[in-house]
Sequence to fold (544 residues):
Amino acid sequence: MSKLSYISSPNSTQTDYVSIVDVLENRAKETPDKEICIHRLPDGGRKVLTYEELTRKSTKLAKYLVSIGIKVGDNVAIMGSNNLEWIIGEFAIFIAGAVAVQYQGSGQVFNETVHLLKSVRCKAVLLDPHADQTYLSEMKKYFQVKDTSSEGDEKPQVVLLQKPDGVPLPYIGDILSAEEDPKVALPRVQPESSAVIFTTSGSTGVPKMVEFTHLAITNSPMKSYFCSENEIVFSDRPFSWLGGSPLYPIVGGFARIFTDPKIILAEEKIQNVWEILKAEKCTVALLFPYALRDLLDHEEEILSMKYKPISIFTGGQKPGSHLNAMSGKFCEEIYSVYGSTEVGNLSKISLAAETEVDHVGEITPGYEVKIIGNDGETLVCGEIGDIVSRSPWMLKSYKDSPELTKVSFTDGGWFRMGDTGLITEDGKLFVKGKAGDVIKRGTKKILYSYVEMAITCFPGVTEVVVVTVPDERLLEEICACVIFEDEARITENDLKKMCFEKLGDNIIGDSPTFFLVFESFPRLNNGKIDRINTKKQAMERLNR
Fold:
């Protein structure tokens, strides 16, 4: 009888029935002076939070939140950039017993901010405002003018994380320097209560609100499986993204070095990032694949610094084959991580010359994975189907989206990863693409990811995005949007020829019909390629 497609990685650690607040208090008692969060500023400066400072300041801010009416279970938004004020504000929300709703940035116009706050009925917002004068003027008017609308929705309270000139609204610095009211009592936070809502990247068009409990955060393998307490970790991820959240370093006890995520989006700044890693003696670096590509492009300058971390972790995009050669050059070992906002890091694999294409490595302890068919039944090993996973640390639900929550889970509490893949007889998980990652050119079905992976491996190609464009006869056609290396001696015709040799023609084979060369791709706030706008640009160039 054929073996079923199922993998289980047992969890060897005991579940701690504690909240994020409990862990913070214990850490502050055990190692009060440990530098846990280090913000490296563009001018070379350095701002630091210790456990003692974080506990003291976030507790004081939490008492303020309670004093203005924030109750257990209320939604409190936190919006802005990576800075120490964000971290203090987020933990204040937890200590007050509220739920932290996280957004990267505050929107380019103030109406975007208001829309986000109303969408999840936030009772307060900790806001790092946009510097635009129109934004500041509208913000000041909105929070200062009494609401006389007939809708009955109360305006949220506001605390500014940075203080613009001429904006007389409550500011975190003033709150932390003022006398606190001794009569304000803080609640006992329950481990199974909701703690935080992460918003997904929105790469499919609409961000989802992913809700986690305190218990899920305090017991997640992300606090210890990938980094130990002795590690010094640099991460280029925004705080609002699960993979960039300061929660896991603080709960796990390892130091987190960070800077403005926009810095690493600019290729010419990768040398500055490496200087920060060297100065802070980072043992682990979390970098997106495009940042690793930048390392290769500036190899001589980077290697001349005579520093390399022990490990580099990457994820968020499929790694190109050129990354396999990086271990030993820029670090001792490089790993690619597979997961999602909803489930966390499901697996990791060490990238090397012998790494198999699409293999995502060993499953994180405490997780189960299986492959199911259209009817929901588990498939036998080797058959391609939908990947589902299960663990105690997954999302609680999609906030205020019962229908989305319902369709995202199967019987038994298995979460649909949204990817297709297979499990081999010897227990290896291979991810083949998105569940909806199918182009229908005429009657032929083609996987986006399969075409992208093939083109990524071609010499001279830095990045590729495959999109569909309308076709009157076939309904859908394939367009490959590519970025070439600066000195690559390759043309669109060369690329077409390589595709035909690797993928077959564009009639019965899998080759794209159209090829467009880009200088850069539009990106989302977290650095991922914005596929929707890339497709829009491609269609404009093709007059479709």
Remarks:
- The chain has a mean pLDDT of 88.
- The longest strand covers residues 461-471.
- The chain has three domains: 6-11+217-391+418-434, 20-189, 438-541.
